[in-house]
Design brief:
Helix content is 35%, strand content 15%. The chain is an alpha+beta fold. Strands 1-2-3 form a 3-stranded antiparallel beta sheet, with helices on one face.
Length: 106
């Protein structure tokens, strides 16, 4: 007795077993190359940003560890007008870096 061979799936098969419906000639969706190009450009930038976000998180963790090692909650560095300040935000357990603006004395 022969065993039945498994059904070969085609590219048009949907997961639920129905074939993908094709467009009737003349009813295909309009393709706008400018929109497609803009979408591809956006996806490229978004993917780059997402990979940078991972790198940013790793660098932030390293900075926080260094601040804890040196028992600091605030660190100011650089020359004016480009001074920076690193502050440990206790509630979020993260390090925050921003431009330093000294308090104005009146």
């Amino acid at each position: 007795m022969k065993k039945k061979s498994p059904k070969k799936s085609s590219a048009n098969d949907k997961p639920n077993g129905q074939a993908k419906q094709k467009y009737i000639t003349g009813t295909e969706p309009v393709r706008i190359k400018a929109i497609e190009d803009a979408a591809y450009d956006y996806v490229a930038v978004r993917d780059e940003r997402m990979s940078l976000t991972e790198s940013e998180g790793e660098n932030q963790e390293r900075l926080l560890a260094l601040m804890k090692t040196n028992q600091l909650t605030k660190y100011i560095f650089g020359d004016e007008p480009d001074q920076m300040v690193v502050e440990v935000v206790a509630t979020d357990e993260r390090a925050k870096v921003k431009k330093f603006r000294p308090e104005k004395k009146e």
